[in-house]
Design the sequence.
């Protein structure tokens, strides 16, 4: 039985295009002993991706999950939506390298994957890399702090 001590709790969500990939990622994560909070969707019936991105992002922002994983056709809609929630740094990763850098340099706390872009057999490797890579800190912390400051500041010229 895998040791689940100190494993982050993972919130996961997908639209109809990402449903099958979500199910296969969930199976992998469960086998690794992760606690999973699946917000849906539960079939291939057409739904709106922002509804799922929002639920996952809000769980991460509130500390109810430490990591979010989102799938839609391209991953673009999921990442755009999740990044609207303060405290969320969602990264669209399409291979192991981008998943690694999203954690090491950007301290991403949400991973978005395009289920119609990335072959299903590669998605597990992307998820594994994201979960197993630590944030490097140092000069990257300064940059992430600058990203995070946008959550709190009023941007000049906006109402
Ligand atoms: C749904 O057809 C599609 O638009 C969605 O899965 C995603 O790719 C949006 O970014």
Sequence:
């Amino acid at each position: 039985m895998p040791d689940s001590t100190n494993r982050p709790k993972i919130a996961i969500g997908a639209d109809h295009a990402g449903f099958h990939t979500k199910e296969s990622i969930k199976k992998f994560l469960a086998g690794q002993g992760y606690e999973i909070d699946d917000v849906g969707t539960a079939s291939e019936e057409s739904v709106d991706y922002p509804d799922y991105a929002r639920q996952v992002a809000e769980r991460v922002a509130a500390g109810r999950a430490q990591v979010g994983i989102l799938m839609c056709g391209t991953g673009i809609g999921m990442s755009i939506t999740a990044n609207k929630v303060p405290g969320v740094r969602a990264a669209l990763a399409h291979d192991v390298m981008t998943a690694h850098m999203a954690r090491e340099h950007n301290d991403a706390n949400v991973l978005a994957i395009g289920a119609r872009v990335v072959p299903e057999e590669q998605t597990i490797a992307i998820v594994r890399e994201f979960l197993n890579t630590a944030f490097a800190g140092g000069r990257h912390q300064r940059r992430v702090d600058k990203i995070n400051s946008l959550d709190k500041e009023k941007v000049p010229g906006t109402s």
